[in-house]
Specification:
It contains 4 helices and 8 strands. The longest helix has 18 residues. The radius of gyration is 15 Å and the shape is globular. The two termini are 14 Å apart.
Length: 158
């Protein structure tokens, strides 16, 4: 089981997400860094194509979610830091925008609440308040929530 709370503080460039996942921290962290596990949950349970996924400090990633209609929605980023079982700091760029270089900076912090419950505290920083508001208006919270729910089911199985 997994839950997600999302906040978008007024006037801020940040989106704050707190996911609580009923699984040990090491399992949750592995699902974020192992490409075979990552592709099973990140796209809300849809097919995810992994073109590149090197989840190490200085690594890069490039993936595409395949929608039910067959369209691909591609994303890429640079991983600035992977501190095992602690945090991941990376950029995220949606490649479907007409302008390249519109990226967010994401910091995911992993906290063991107990031996079988992990909290993932994610801060997404967008380049402007207007950009942040556009992220929120796009329905990203619903997709994020679906992905976290799939993640919760996945880590129960592995």
């Amino acid at each position: 089981m997994a839950t997600l709370k999302v906040e978008a503080p007024a006037g801020s460039q940040n989106i704050l997400g707190t996911a609580v996942i009923k699984a040990p921290l090491a399992k949750v962290f592995k699902a974020y860094t192992d490409p075979e596990l990552f592709k099973k949950w990140w796209g809300r349970g849809h097919e995810v194509k992994v073109y590149e996924f090197n989840a190490v400090t200085g690594g890069t990633w490039h993936i595409a979610e395949v929608a039910e209609d067959g369209n691909e929605y591609a994303f890429r980023g640079t991983i600035h830091e992977v501190a095992e079982n602690e945090r991941i700091i990376q950029t995220n760029e949606f490649l479907g925008l007409p302008e390249r270089g519109v990226v967010s900076l994401e910091k995911a912090e992993f906290v063991a609440l107990d031996d079988n419950t992990t909290e993932v505290r994610t801060t997404v920083t967008v380049q402007s308040v207007e950009g942040r508001d556009a992220y929120v208006a796009s329905g990203m919270e619903g997709g994020w929530r679906q992905s976290v729910e799939v993640l919760g089911t996945l880590v129960e199985e592995v």
